[in-house]
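re: ur question from yesterday

yeah so i grabbed the chain u mentioned. its 157 aa long if i counted rite. heres the sequnce exactly as i have it in my notes:
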Amino acid sequence: MTLTRKTPMKRSGFARKVPNSLTSKPFALAGRKVQMKRTEMKKRAKRKPTVAEGSKYIDACRGEECYLRVPGTCVSRGWSHDSVVDCHSNQSIHGKAGGLKAKHEFTVPGCGPCHYWLDFGKATWEEKVLVFDTALGLWVPVRARKMGLDQPQSESA
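ran it thru and got these structure tokens back, copy pasting raw so excuse formatting
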């Protein structure tokens, strides 16, 4: 047994809402001058570093010792270790925000346990900033020599 409808279904579409200004007087503004809204010129988007430009900072961290050297955590103890990776800064002044990592210039080689401590450890923010900034201060001249970058010369010479 098949069901058949005796009366056809009523077609009811969605009601369209048209603004009153368009339906009542479509040519009311035709004779007037319409002022163009002036907007500022859009600023050109900043150029993002390419993968190759960023990877040279990350590659410099490979095969290095742990520079974070968190007491009681570090497994590297001043020599190269397999778990040494690049540790990005967690500070907003270095470009860290929301789901973004800090700029690659603000990376430091760190062993796995020290990296975990930096990102998830129970230490205070001030302790983490102190450890990272100390490590960055030690790493920047070494990285500059390793990458062949120019270091600012002292003016006393």
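noticed a couple things. Helices lie at 20-24, 51-61, 112-120, 125-147. also The chain has a mean pLDDT of 77.
anyway ttyl
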